Amino acid sequence: MTSPSPTCSSTRWRGNANRRKVRRPLIDSEPPRLAPIANKLIDSVFHPLGEQDPRYYVIDTIAHHVVEAADQFVISAWKTIRYNGPRLAKKKKG
Fold first, then answer.
1. Which residue of 28, 47, 74, 93 sits 20 to 30 Å from the alpha carbon of 67, by its own alpha carbon?
2. Is residue 63 part of a domain?
3. How many domains does the chain have?
4. Model pTM greater than 0.85?
């Protein structure tokens, strides 16, 4: 007798005797990195302006810091969902 196919992509059946479910994290991949795209955009906007007025280089630096901080927040939120999401979903159901 073959084991039934899983109904969810995050569940696999292992072995026919005990039919134990093996759970994978909700998110398998790495978080999206937005900083490289945003940094190129910031550079394309503020570097030409900085040649005209040096104050734009200060704005450029601040914008890069904001983007890096936001990117770290996205990574932190991604890890929270990946590692704590199944526990939180389990407590909510039960």
1. 28
2. yes
3. 1
4. no
